[in-house]
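Wed. Picked up where I left off yesterday with D-lactate dehydrogenase (cytochrome). The coffee machine is broken again, so keeping this brief.
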Amino acid sequence: MIEVIEALIQATSEDRVTTNKTILAQHGKDEVYSEPRNPDVVVFPVTSEEVSAIIEIANEFQVPVVPFGLGTSLEGHVIPYHGGISLDFSSMNQHIEVKPDDFLVTVDPGVTRSQLNKKLKPYGLFFSVDPGADATLGGMAATNASGTTSVKYGVMKDQVRSLEVVLPNGKIIQTGTHAAKSSSGYHLSSLFVGSEGTLGCITKLTLQVYGIPETIVAARVSFRNLNQAVDAVIQLLSAGIELARVELVDEASIKQVNESNDKNFKEAPTLFIEFHGNEASVQHDISFTEELLADAEGMDIEFEKDVKGRNELWEARHNLAYSFVHGHPGKKMMVTDVCLPISQLAIGIQHAREQMDALSLDGALLGHVGDGNFHALLMIDSDNVEEKRKADLFNEAIVHHALRRGGTCTGEHGVGVGKIKYQQLEHGDSLEVMHQIKQVLDPNQIMNPGKIFDRV
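Structure written out below (tokens, as returned):
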């Protein structure tokens, strides 16, 4: 690696190429339970041209390259299991070009979601995708992130108008235009969104943004059981109510929220809901929602109209994972997700709860139920072989159940290394097409090897 490191220093600068053990360790892990593995070197590029030069060096020496944003991934995407270069985009976070009349913004990949929204606020605009973590926009595109607002605004791929991408041979390409639609050629943006750094490095993004709603109202309602809560969501969606967010949190989650955030919520399956629009439309939706929730036997329905109340409500939801971590010292968090057709969601969640109880696992179920995506959050002792075995059995059970019912093994977390073993079952012969695309674009297999596919 000495020759490679010398070449990297020449292509960038000595102070942005490091083999410091602490920095290597920071780039050898993600947010949860995946086995760590340090890279050989970390590089901090500041321009697309530097990224191109780094990739050319890696391709010449056939050294792996793993793109790194903030390390908030949940399936081991950023862990360099084959060593090589960790390409940290945190220094590429200066460029934010707002085009308010087009409802577009062009940003560097290291810009975070909160950084972008702070820049957009004076224009009366906001970026909609909210995965909870303050991830980088490049990383969010690489994993096709979504989150709480996807039921109304869509997921990351729906916001991407164009990407600048550095291919594995170092060539820089643009995948689209600033036009709202196009019928010209293959839709390359969709190829790179969700590719998890296996086909190239995203170095700029042009994204769709939205006007900040005139009126925002949040609500919380509890139910006797999970089935009632999911059925209520289906009724709301069927009625055509414009829900901006609708999140399910189970009884175990509410109990943890109460303990960690000094709340006194009813410990029962709960929906967190939010409405966006003008005053008249939101009031109409609230009135209709109250009627439907009453019919669905919802309990303790509360609405939050002021900013402070809304923020406190959503803070409790977004901080749920960290509440579990702080409430279970000595254990690590395993978070997995599946996505099902809405009609199969209640059955899927009930099956997950049955499996969790049968395996005596400590955890909770929650998710973005408006689009059929739910998460299982488990707290396990990573040194306990039996607990890890049970967690794997649980994950396998809910994935197979989702696939049997027309769903997917992951709705938003991505494949990484954790979901590789389900790719053949989910995609069948089309998995070979993905292999062929990978082979054409990255014949030396340098881009994030061992992710999505088990071939290297």
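Quick read: The chain is about 35% helix and 20% strand.
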